[in-house]
Amino acid sequence: VEALVVQLLLIAFQFWLVRKVERARLVHMLVLLGLPGPILRAMHARPVRILDNDSDDDDGEEGGDEDDKSAVGVAPAGGAAAAAAVAAKAGAEQGGQAGLLTQQPSLPAPVQRHGTDGTEEDEPLPTTGAFAKLAAAEAGAHRGSHPGAAAPSMVLPVVDAAVAAAAAGRGGGSGHKFAMKKKVKHQDSLTRGALSFNGKAIIPSYLTTVKLMWPLGLWWAALVAIYVLSYTQLNSMQEPLSSLNMACHVIYRYSQIRTTAWVAVTQANNVDKDIARAELRHELDLLVSEYNTLMYGGLSLSQLGSPFTHETPPAAFVSKTFSDKFFKEKDCLRWEQDTCLKEGHQYYEVSRSGLDAMMRRLISEMNLLVEDSYVDLNYLSTRYDYMFTVGARDLYEGLQDAAKLFVDYSINRYNNVLLIHTILLAATAVLAVVYGLFWVRP
């Protein structure tokens, strides 16, 4: 659920944020598209004033600066401000004052140009067109900066003239405006997600979006792969856990039989012995069922009506180590090796024939003990002597070791899953820092 739902929602939210940031970045780029075409052409065609310093005397000197020529605009800073005002007003008013502009006089104004001798030469500007009115406004501003000069009166008409030029460039007719709107709408449909202005469109960078999103997609794929691997490993533990559960049942049932047999041989009257015999017979039936289930699979009698009804796999055929301990083990299974039965003891052979031989012998001896007469049902009985000598040490401790095989296997699987998720946690923390510091930041 986390990998398929929560993480996908977070990645989708991250994608939405990236698209919003990319669109916000495009808004700032619309400044270049906001200026109408005629204004851009007029600004591009402005004459320049060349400051030419005589550098002939410096030709023979080492280290002289060969780049003594610079080009600057004819108008002062006020001219750039006027151009910006023209651009802003041209974007807001599209031909609203075209009628007023036609009534303004077109006054030629000289442009100051520096010659090679340092003197200023006057050169008349064109007397028609939008550029003439723009140049007239700049020239008026230049003359107004001298003492005694009259206040410029052509600024507003020139601005209106630029607006009129912009309107003329876009087309003053309503039919042309309608065609432009249709063109913009058609362009928007072709460039979905782009920002358009004046018939121009800025398309967002899909490469930037992919660059910011592919690490998250790769991380999500790795997360899903790790979750699938973890689920597979944990799901494969059902059979070992079922075998471990049944092995614990066998050990518990064997302990119950030891206790019940001890009660049966220590009772003083026959009534108590009969009660102990009945209990011992019932426990033996359960032990046989659970032991056969552990070795050969299936469901035992004790699992009927139990909430845990998962079938036990045949441990004798699934695990070779487990099978060898029951059928091929020839060593002493006691934890304290110095207490092992010595060669020549009556139970020496059976104690070194594997767990299955010892368990089958125990079940046989207990069935005989249940059928013995009251006189033979005592503490010195040979049936109970096998239980005390072999069953209490060799068989019981061997069953504990066999169950520990499933415990170790389960713990090993859990540790593998824990290691994978620990690596995932550490890698996620490191990659998050790297992604934030070196990938997202410009």
UniProtKB/TrEMBL annotation:
Protein's name according to its UniProt entry: Uncharacterized protein
Organism: Chlamydomonas leiostraca
Location of the region described as Disordered in the Swiss-Prot/TrEMBL record: 51-73, 100-126
PANTHER family documented for this protein: GAMETE ENRICHED GENE 10 PROTEIN-RELATED, TINY MACROCYSTS PROTEIN B-RELATED
Compositional bias annotation for Acidic residues: 53-68
Keywords, comma-separated and alphabetical: Membrane, Transmembrane, Transmembrane helix
InterPro entries found in the cross-reference section: Tiny_macrocysts_regulators
Upper classification of the organism: Eukaryota, Viridiplantae, Chlorophyta, core chlorophytes, Chlorophyceae
Top-rank lineage group of the source organism: Eukaryota
TM helices/strands, residue ranges: 212-229, 418-440
